Structures are given as C-alpha cells and as structure tokens.
From TrEMBL:
Residues 624-682 are annotated as: Disordered. The chain crosses the membrane at residues 752-776. Its cofactor is Zn(2+). It comes from Dromaius novaehollandiae (Emu). The lineage of its organism: Eukaryota, Metazoa, Chordata, Craniata, Vertebrata. It is found in: Cell membrane; Secreted. This is Metalloendopeptidase. Residues 429-595 form the MATH domain. It comes from the Eukaryota. CDD domains: EGF_CA (cd00054), MAM (cd06263), ZnMc_meprin (cd04282). It catalyses: Hydrolysis of proteins, including azocasein, and peptides. Hydrolysis of 5-His-|-Leu-6, 6-Leu-|-Cys-7, 14-Ala-|-Leu-15 and 19-Cys-|-Gly-20 bonds in insulin B chain. Zn(2+) binds at residues 154, 158, 164.
C-alpha cells in the first residue's frame, strides 16, 4: 500500500475536484424556469391583486384615464434605476428606452432633481401607475422575471397614460370575455371603461397591442378567458415582443409626436422619388430602379415579389459597363442628433466577386462646407442568390449624406449589385449577425429536443470573451413548438488574459422581424447577464472559464472546443408567432447578437455627483408633500459616461448574489421602502455616489446619523430605513464587506471556499469522477458523430 503525505493528497484531491467539473453534456438553465410567464401570471403567482393585474391605483384615482393633460409627462421623462433592480433588468430598461427613442418622441433622462420622476425598482411583480400622478417619486416595479423588453415597454406605457387594450369601451365588438372561466375574485380585471373616461384616440381595436391581455389571463382552468371575435387573432393577443403599429400611433397622438429622437430614414424604393436619393454626377454610370434582374434578384426584398406592380430595388448593372466603372447613389442631406448611427440594408450580388460596394459618408462642416468624403465600409464577396443583411456603424456629428458606390471589378459579370430596404437610425448596430437559411426545411425536419439544436458560429465580444448561441428549432422536449435559445460562453483565444468568472456582460439575442421599416419591426428578443457570483447546481461559478465548467464540443470542421453552460429560455417564441410577421423572409431568419459590458450599471444611479443645499424655506423643496427640506442640486450630468473597469465581484448594488458562497455585505439590497415621500441624494467621494429613499425623518436627523462616518476602508455611509449603512468599495477582483467594510474579499478566496466545501465529500466525488470520465468519453464520441453536424449557413460580423 502506498502512503501519501496529507498535503500532497489534499492537493491531488483538489485537482481531481477541479478536473471533475466539466459536465457530461452542455447544460442549459432557463431564465424563467421554462415557463412563458406573462406579466399577469407573474403577479398572480406572487399573490398580488393589483387593479387589472399590474396597475397601481392611488387614492385620488378612480377610473380616470389618459384624458387630461395633467396626467401626461414632459417629453423627456426623468428616471432613477434603483439599486434593488437586477443587473439584467437595468440593461433592459435602457434598451426599452432606446425603442421609445426610435419609435416615439418620448425620451428619458437620469433624474436630476426634477419634481416628478419615475423610480424603477425591483418590487414584487411587474406593475406601474397609469399616467403622471404628479406626486414626485412615482414607482414602477420590474420584479423577478419582468426583465423582458416587451414587459418593460408595457409598464412604461401604463406610466405614460395607457390602460389595457381590452378595457376599451368598444371591446365587446372584438373580444368575448368568458366570465365562467375567470378565477373567482378576479372578474374585475376584465372591466371596461366608457368612452368618457378612456380615449381610444380614434385608433381601431388592436389585437396586436403590447397592452392586450393574453387569452390565458386570470383563467381558472385551461380554457381561454378571452376569445377573439375574429378567430385568427386568438393566438395573436398577448404579444410581448414590441410596440404594435397602433400602440405607436396612440402614443404619438397622445403626446403630439412629430418626430423621434433616433430614427433618421427608411427607404424601400417603392416610390419613384426613391426617398430623395440622387444619382451622383461624379460617376460614369447610374443605379436603376428595377423589380427584377435576369441574373438575380428575381424579386425585391420588401415584398418578395408578392405584390403586383410594386417591389422595387436599386440595381447597378456591372455586366453592361467596363472595368472600373462606378455608379454612386447619394442620400439626401441628413441631420444627426446623437453622433452615432447604424445604417442597415439588404444587398444582393449577382455580378462578380471582384465587383464591390463601398459605403461612404460626406460630412458638411463649417470648415468644409463642400463636404469631406470618408470611406466607411467596403463590401465584397462571392455572388450569392439571396439578399443579405448588412450593418454599417457610422459616427457622424455634422449634417451628412450616405453614398453607395458600386464599382465594376475585373471579372466577368452577368448581373450586378442591388440594394433594398435601407434603414438609418441613431442607434447602436448589433455586434454580430447569424443568418440561418432554408429555415422552413429546418422547421420541417428538425426533431424536438437536443437533436434539433443548432449552434451559431463562434463570436467574440469586444472584451475578448468567446460565445455562441444555441437554438432549438422545434423546442426542447419539455417545451416543444417553441423556439428555445441559449447563450454560452465558449473557450476562446483570450481566455488566459480574461477575468473569470465573466462579469456583467449582457448578451442580447434578437430574432429580427424583417419588416422593411425599422419603426414597424416587432422583433423578439431576450437578454442574459453574466453574474460573476452565480453558481450552477454543482456550486461552480456558472460563468467561469468554459474549459473549467464546460463540456467538449466540436465545430463543423471537427475542431474541438469547450462550451460552457447556456442561459436563456425554452419559451423564446412560439412557432405560431415565428410564422407571423416577417421573421422568416426569403426562407431565412436573422439572429442579431450584441454582447456588451454593463458593469457601469452596478454603481448607484443617477451617477451624477449631486451636491446638497440645506434649505429651510419650503419654497425650494423637491416636492410639496415632503416633510424634509432638502433640495438636490446636481452639478453635473454624467450619467451616460461609462466606466471601463470590469469588476468581477458583485458590489454592494447587486441583488443577485444570494446563491453565492461568499457574498458582499448583506446591508446592500434594502434601499427601497414603500410610500417614499422624499429622495435624498448624498454627496460621496471618491467611489460612488448614491441615492436613498427616505420615509419620514426630518432632514437634520438624516444627515446627523451619518455625520461620523462609521465605515472603514473608504466605505461610504448612507441612510437606509433611517439607519446608517456602509457602501463598501470594490475593485477588479476584490471587495470589502462586513457592516463597516472591515473585511476584504476576493475572487481568489471565493474559488477556494467553493472548492474546499467540496472536499468534505471528496471520497464520493472521487468515485463519481472516475466513473463519469469514462462515460463522458463515450458520450463525446457519440455526440461528435450525430449531433454536432451543423446546418449553419454563414455569419457576418458588422464593423
Ligand atoms: Zn398592464
């Protein structure tokens, strides 16, 4: 018998524990437990009995409605993202604001002391009041599982003044309420208003509204509670993808919107004026407006040839001109407001691979009134018999034109270059695009479950993390007839240089609605955020290095790599919705991917550095109902600036640390109280600024209780529930914790803690390890043969 020294044995066992981490197959967790919970399901499960399921009424409010200017907000709504919010929710709220900026005239800004503002916090469930209640702080709750963009848009539409669509006075003409199928006690949720209290703004009843209940709302069994009088709409009601056209029409009417902040132009070339675009005089050929070209395209992209006497695109016939000939199509002059733009368009190359399309920008400034020409992107590639979506990022700050320059190359061309469905907006382009072609064939032939799962090509985030998206075409075995989608970290070239576990990257997966006009798209999306302290079922860090917590997988060319566990949803989109709108067009779907660092949202919002003005006169109080007499006077507005550091630890603002073995200070999460009357903004240096909601105490007491800062290690004292609380500083891979920030923690320690707790069961682990390694190898070789053959078409990184 061989005897080991105890330390050597322990070390060896530790290594075994670490080696044993890879799971046998790719695992996935569902953000929402795999249940497609609508707002009302979430709130009902929490036992909330709010008005119409998700509306908070105040004492003054009867069945008042959007009628009346008093209930409107200014065009720019001040908001605060409270510390209690989950990080994924914070990122998504900002994304929802971007949709408002693109499609309406409503804008949002971080609160800077304005009288009325919306405090978005993580309460129980998803809910809002209706309209501007003129009460100073107005709460809007984005609770657990409410972190979906459609849900957030829905709640903010309440705040902007809208009731549910099915409570319109004329709803009985369009839907039938099945009263006997409604849970008893919930019937009032199906009340309707007469037209003196609710204004439908002369817009038709909208089955597609994001404000409509689904057919299952408040049901007592399995039968629907709402039946649409036009049967085709039975499964349409209850969509939570994005605003419908009528939602936007109503919102824009109520707020007299004439333009939006970030939309610039859309053109499908259906009108003969080609949206004011012009043929340049500096070239030797022209683009033509056509509906068909013999060598392709056979149809335009807008209508796919389905509409008679319409369906045009712009074409540069390279087969008819000599080598080096060019044709330039210029946009009209455009006026940017934000300084960054995304240009997107569909491109078809039926010429030769040497034919090229260049995208230029002419920018006009006072120094260069005739314009400066800048080449933005060169698009080349082999001819293909389909339209391809392209994104081009611009960063233009002065008035400008976009130029499409086609250039005839050296090779033999039988066709040419075509463009269609251009959209220009002042938004961020998606980082990556996954185009899946022959999608109906995939739908028809893919089995449900893992055998019908396909993976995207690998992509890199700008921070260097490699990732991949998995898509179940016909659903998971638990949840068939749905698209299921998951985001995985995978092993990549930079892994040794990166911080692990991966911290606070938000991955957004968008199934693109390919409507030609970006404002009318109702794309479906979900986001996942990498919480560095989240653990999997084996107490590994969920977002740790894929070669540590992942399993072996293979690219189509046979190269092995490690794929980490996936996070996403098995209820991404029903097939019924997938087949609606323009999700599938030219038999292809596009999945747009963006992975961005949202760690700057860890800090308390607003991130401006306000200063205090003690003021005993009531004339300058934030709001009349407040008993405190403090006026917040922010000196700067830097809320949009981002920090580039990437803390791996959850700082005191995180609310998602409950599963961690060693978390941050426990005092961190309770910053919100009910019925707040005053918001007090404290001044802090140098680490964070912070804001707190107070209930009753007079201002002098508030300041006194923190006056002798009890916090150590540069911790900041703030008041929560009338008691002083320390906010502790955190760095890249360390943080302070404890009531006074007296203890220091680090990622390193956490790893040790996690591993050493496993040692207590090392004997069992050891046996399991040895057995499972054998099984794993078998499974891998099988998996390689049958399930890793991908049917991916292609990928394209825009930039
Ligand atoms: Zn609602």
């Amino acid at each position: 018998m061989v005897w080991f020294s105890v330390p050597a044995l322990l070390t060896w066992l530790l290594l075994q524990v670490v080696w044993s981490q890879p799971a046998p197959e790719t695992t996935e967790i569902d953000l929402d437990g795999g249940i497609d919970q609508d707002i009302f399901d979430i709130n009902e499960a929490l036992g909330l009995n709010l008005f119409e399921g998700d509306i908070k009424l105040d004492g003054l409010q009867g069945r008042n409605s959007i009628i009346g200017d008093n209930y409107r907000w200014p065009y720019t709504i001040p908001y605060v993202l409270e510390d209690s919010l989950e990080m994924n929710a914070k990122g998504l709220i900002l994304k929802a604001f971007e949709q408002y900026r693109l499609k309406t005239c409503i804008d949002f800004k971080p609160w800077e002391g304005e009288k009325d503002y919306i405090s978005v916090f993580k309460g129980s469930g998803c809910w809002s009041s209706v309209g501007n209640r003129q009460q100073g702080l107005q709460q809007l709750s984005i609770g657990a599982n409410c972190d979906r963009i459609g849900t957030i848009e829905h709640e903010f539409l309440h705040a902007l003044g809208f009731w549910h669509e099915q409570s319109r006075s004329d709803r009985d003409d369009y839907v039938s309420i099945m009263w006997d199928r409604i849970q008893s006690g919930y019937e009032h949720n199906f009340n309707k208003y007469d037209d003196t209290t609710s204004d439908s703004l002369n817009v038709p009843y909208d089955y597609t509204s994001v404000m409509h209940y689904s057919k299952t709302a408040f049901r007592n069994g399995t039968e629907p509670t709402i039946i649409t009088n036009i049967p085709d709409f039975t499964d349409v009601i209850g969509q939570r993808m994005d605003f419908s056209d009528y939602d936007l029409q109503k919102l824009n009417r109520l707020y007299n919107c004439t333009s939006s902040l970030s939309f610039m132009d859309t053109c499908s070339f259906e009108l003969e004026n080609i949206c004011g675009m012009i043929q340049s005089s500096d070239d030797n050929s022209d683009w033509q407006r056509l509906s068909q070209v013999p060598a392709g395209p056979n149809t335009d992209h807008t209508n796919m040839g389905e509409c008679e006497d319409s369906g045009y695109f712009m074409h540069f016939n390279t087969s008819a001109v000599g080598e080096g000939s060019t044709a330039v199509l210029e946009s009209r002059i455009l006026y940017p407001k934000r300084g960054f733009q995304c240009l997107q368009f569909y491109f078809y190359n039926s010429g030769h691979e040497s034919d090229q399309l260049y995208v230029w920008v002419t920018e006009y400034t006072s120094d260069h009134p005739n314009g400066t020409l800048t080449l933005i992107e060169e698009i080349r590639g082999s001819p293909a018999d389909y339209w391809q979506l392209h994104h081009v990022s611009l960063n233009v700050t002065s008035k400008f034109r976009v130029l499409f320059q086609g250039v005839r190359g050296t090779g033999v061309s039988n066709g040419g270059l075509s463009i269609d469905d251009i959209n220009l907006s002042e938004t961020q382009c998606p980082h990556h695009v996954w185009h899946i072609r022959n999608f109906t064939h995939l739908l028809d032939t893919s089995p449900e479950g893992t055998a019908g799962r396909i993976y995207s090509p690998p992509f890199y985030s700008s921070e260097g993390y490699a990732f991949q998206v998995g898509l179940y075409v016909n659903g998971t075995s638990d949840n068939p007839f749905n698209l299921a989608i998951y985001l995985h970290l995978i092993s990549g070239a930079n892994d040794d240089q990166l911080q692990w576990p991966c911290a606070w990257l938000q991955g957004t997966m968008i199934l693109l609605d390919q409507h030609p006009d970006i404002r009318q798209r109702m794309s479906n999306q979900r986001s996942v955020t990498t919480d560095p302290l989240a653990l999997d079922s084996s107490s590994n860090y969920f977002w740790d290095r894929p070669d540590k917590v992942g399993s072996t997988a293979y690219f189509p060319n046979g190269t092995a790599f490690m794929r980490g566990p996936g996070s996403g949803t098995s209820a991404f989109l029903t097939h019924q919705r997938l087949r609606s709108r323009d999700f599938i067009k030219e038999d292809g779907v596009y999945i747009l991917l963006t992975v961005e660092d949202i760690s700057h949202l860890l800090s308390t919002q607003p991130s401006a550095s306000p200063t205090f003005v003690m003021n005993n006169s009531s004339a300058n109080t934030i709001r009349p109902t407040s008993t405190a007499t403090i006026t917040a006077t922010p000196t700067t507005s830097t809320a949009t600036s981002t920090t580039t550091t990437k803390p791996t630890s959850s700082t005191a603002t995180s609310t998602t640390t409950s599963t961690a073995t060693s978390t941050t200070t426990s005092t961190a999460t309770s910053t919100t109280t009910t019925n707040p009357t005053t918001r007090l903004t404290t001044t802090t240096t140098p680490i964070t600024t912070t804001s707190v909601i107070l209930t009753e105490p007079p201002a002098t007491d508030i300041l006194d209780s923190c006056s002798d800062n009890p916090c150590e290690n540069d911790g900041i004292c703030i008041i929560v529930d009338e008691a002083p609380v320390c906010r502790c500083p955190a760095g890249d891979n360390w943080w302070y914790m404890g009531e006074k920030c007296e203890k220091k923690g680090s990622t390193q320690e956490n790893t040790v803690i996690a591993v050493s707790s496993s040692i207590t069961v090392f004997v069992v682990m050891l046996i399991v390890t040895i057995t499972s390694v054998v099984c794993l190898k078998k499974k891998y070789s099988q998996g390689k043969e049958n399930s890793e053959n991908l049917t991916l078409e292609e990928s394209k990184t825009s930039f």
